[in-house]
Amino acid sequence: MHQMQETPDDREFPTPQHGTKVNPIAIGLTFAMVIFAVVIGLTGPRLRERQGTTQQDLPIGDLATIAAMHELRATTDIAEGRDREAALAKLPELIREALGARGTRVTASSVASTTTVAGATDPTPAPDLSPAGWFADDARNVELAPGVLGTMVLYRNHETNAILSVIMLPDDGRTVRFDGFGQAIPIAPGDEWLQVLAADESGNARTAYALSDGRILWLALGNGKPAVARIAKLLK
Q1: Is 214 left (phi over 0), alpha (psi -120 to 50) or beta?
Q2: Phi then psi for 96, rounded to 5 degrees?
Q3: Looking at residue 203, what DSSP letter applies?
Q4: CB 74 within 8 A of CB 138
Q5: CA–CA separation, 88 vs 119, rounded Å?
Q6: CA-based Rg of the chain, rounded to a whole angstrom?
């Protein structure tokens, strides 16, 4: 007897008895990721507007490192016979060039009210560090970043012959420091920053200190935290 063969369409398939199970944890994670993406999309642009882009930020550590390089060059120039008195005589002009209107008003505690530089009749706007044994020895303008000019004043201790530098920069709110998580934190008026820089070719590691007063960013370079801490008191 001829038997009929089953075709694929004639086969019977078991009917699913249970629906597909849905994992509630997976659903919860999916919703959480969607909400997180929405929040980042809404707040991200505002954070960038508030903190600025990385191109606009000026990391204080980078500024201090470049300043230390300029300081080393300045000491070399002094050793080669640079006319320091002539440089100091131009200090008010240097400050006007670097700071503009910000350099016309400095805090009373930072002004040498009775000390003149190189015979100048007007008080110098450079910090008076003589109470700590430091006296102005040279001055120049230095570029610490593209378009960022500062006035550097080198001080000498007549007893130890050591050098200390103070740089005055216009404080336009772009200078930042980094916290333990690598987040850029703007240096606000009244904020202070202290760090030991990497050693230079001669093995000398300078200590850098920065202070913002809202108009001027003061950056000091010296040997060791104790010496810089004494100078910091005179800059406040």
Answers
A1: left
A2: -65, -40
A3: S
A4: yes
A5: 10
A6: 31
Residue with the larger pLDDT of the pair 137 and 106:
137
Dihedral sign, Cα of residue 48, residue 54, residue 58, residue 61: positive
- How many of the other CB atoms lie within 10 Å of CB of 163? 21
Task: Tell me the mean pLDDT in the region 49-75.
Answer: 81
149: number of Cβ within 10 Å = 16
User: Does residue 6 sit in helix, strand or coil?
Assistant: coil
Say how far apart CA 33 and CA 40 lie, in whole Å: 11
Asked whether residue 210 carries a pLDDT value surpassing 90, the answer given is: yes
Give the residue carrying structure tokens 């910091």.
Answer: 232
Q: 167, exposed or middle or buried, with CB in 10 Å at 0-12, 13-18, 19+?
A: buried
| CA 48 centroid distance within chain | 17
State how far Cα 123 lies from the chain centre: 30
Backbone angles phi, psi at 116, to 5 degrees: -105, 160
The yes-or-no verdict on residue 114 having pLDDT over 50 is no
Q: Is the pLDDT of residue 179 over 50?
A: yes
- Residue 90 has φ and ψ, to the nearest 5°, of -90, 5
Pairing of strands 192-196, 134-145: unpaired
